[in-house]
TrEMBL record:
Domain FAD-binding PCMH-type: 12-195
Family note: Belongs to the FAD-binding oxidoreductase/transferase type 4 family.
Protein name listed in UniProt: FAD-binding oxidoreductase
Source taxon at top rank: Bacteria
InterPro entries assigned to the protein according to its UniProt record, in alphabetical order: FAD-bd_oxidored_4_C (IPR004113), FAD-bd_PCMH (IPR016166), FAD-bd_PCMH-like_sf (IPR036318), FAD-bd_PCMH_sub1 (IPR016167), FAD-bd_PCMH_sub2 (IPR016169), FAD-linked_Oxase-like_C (IPR016164), FAD-oxidored/transferase_4 (IPR051264), Oxid_FAD_bind_N (IPR006094)
Length: 441
């Protein structure tokens, strides 16, 4: 059971007395009912790719529990082209769902680094983001209906393809982002979109983050919804990724933007229009991918940043978001404060500037592996103080899990927290579902 009990970053490890892998919704219900009657704590688990220990049992769980792994509940239930949606079971891997959509001439836009192993149920449970949020929104915007086994074993089934429905509360939104604390998602109806027939991918060197934000405004104004990705990368992050991937750096600049325009028609004018737009506004330090291979290489430089860093030591990750207009002032204020307190700290800044989220990862080259976590509380306090100062959040797209529960009361008002706890108590009175996650003690 070892692989189920420890998270992929090897930070969180708990003990359980069983891992259950149900093949059917009825089996999930039977398992959950048994746990409810016997008061057995239960951890729902998808691909176990959480960055915050959301899917591994917490070692503070009162009494040994079980893990319910959704991996075997992974079928496509229905493809509905008239309503442009697909219904899949929770254990289906995200990349498979992308392929299912492509097989019927559609596109499912959620895309993130772990898409080859993360599962759709986990993506919904933590309201995952990724590189296409600027155009398609996070997971919350892609879910039409949910099927969920509640903590008492009852089935909440609303896999509706309805595009409109104004009948009271939309309960699914309480489940999306609840990270398995309110129920086990067993299936979902997801929105499909037209596939992109034209991709224009540009790497643009900019002098500052303000310059990058100006580029974002410019491309949004010129290309509106065709702007599907807008990623910010510091020069240091690029240097690490370039060494790791053995791919050369496309250009030199203090900051870099990887942006992509997509069009669902064959739009041969789009590359030229982007080129003219960039040159016209003085963004001359830029390259456009001229082949699919070049496009893949540019994306590979972006997608390998985390991996490149992992090889240099464990990092203290900050998955933060803030108003886009405040990103530059946050970065300017935070680096000196952090560097003064931790002179050896290396800061790797990159992220999804198009939706205001940043990965502000810190590592210490001379501190071995997990020893770096002794500095985590101190660093978090410094970084998050700056995040709160600009009205940001400490969990943009990776969730709270067991890593960030103590920050919840800084993020949410007392009224909101009381409401969350009331819902939790109503659905899971014995607090058996995903103990130690999301909600403060
Ligand atoms: C990414 O966008 O590459 C990941 O969400 C970032 C990370 O691993 O910190
Ligand atoms: Zn990310």
């Amino acid at each position: 059971m070892a692989g189920f009990c420890i998270d992929q970053r090897r930070r969180f490890e708990g003990k359980v007395w069983a891992v259950v892998q149900p093949h059917s919704v009825e089996a999930v219900q039977k398992t959950v009912r048994y746990c409810y009657e016997q008061q057995i704590p239960l951890t729902p688990q998808g691909g176990n790719t959480s960055m915050c220990g959301g899917a591994t049992p917490s070692d503070s769980v009162a009494g040994l529990g079980i893990i319910v792994s959704l991996s075997k509940l992974n079928r496509v239930r229905e493809v509905n082209l008239a309503d442009n949606c697909i219904t899949v079971e929770a254990g289906r891997v995200l990349q498979q769902v992308q392929q299912d959509a492509a097989a019927v001439g559609r596109m499912f836009p959620l895309s993130l680094a772990s898409e080859g192993s993360c599962q759709i149920g986990g993506n919904i449970a933590c309201n995952a983001g990724g590189v296409n949020v600027v155009r398609y929104g996070p997971m919350r915007d892609l879910v039409m209906g949910l099927e969920v086994v509640l903590p008492n074993g009852d089935l909440l089934s609303h896999l509706s393809p309805l595009h409109k429905n104004t009948t009271g509360f939309d309960v699914k939104h309480a489940l999306i982002g609840s990270e398995g604390t309110l129920g086990i998602i067993t299936a979902a109806t997801l929105k499909l979109f037209a596939p992109a027939r034209t991709h224009v991918t540009a790497w643009v060197g900019v002098d500052s983050i303000d310059h990058a934000v100006a580029l974002l405004e410019l491309t949004q104004q010129h290309f509106a919804e065709r702007l599907s990705s807008f990623e910010l990368i510091s020069d240091f992050a690029l240097e690490l990724s370039s060494q790791h991937t053995q791919l050369s750096q496309p250009l030199s600049a203090p900051w870099h933007v990887l942006l992509e325009l997509t069009d669902s028609t064959d739009n041969t004018l789009l590359p030229e229009q982007l080129g003219e737009c960039l040159l016209g506004a003085g963004f001359e330090n830029a390259v456009l991918a001229e082949s699919e291979q070049q496009r893949e290489q540019l994306w590979s430089l972006r997608e390998n940043i985390s991996d490149a860093q992992r090889h240099l030591g464990a990092s203290i990750k900050h998955d933060i978001a803030m108003p886009i207009r405040s990103v530059a002032s946050f970065v300017h204020a935070c680096a000196p404060v952090l560097q003064a307190a931790y002179p050896n700290a290396k800061i790797v800044v990159f992220g999804h500037l198009g939706d205001g989220s940043l990965h502000y990862n810190v590592f210490m080259p001379d501190v071995l592996s997990n020893d770096v976590y002794q500095y985590e509380a101190g660093m978090n306090a410094l970084v998050y103080e700056q995040v709160f100062a600009v009205g940001g959040t400490v969990a943009a797209e990776h969730g709270i899990g067991q890593l960030k529960t103590k920050w919840m009361d800084k993020m949410r008002s007392g009224t909101e927290l009381a409401l969350m706890l009331a819902i939790k108590k109503q659905l899971d009175p014995n607090c058996l579902f995903n103990q130690g996650k999301v909600l403060p003690d």
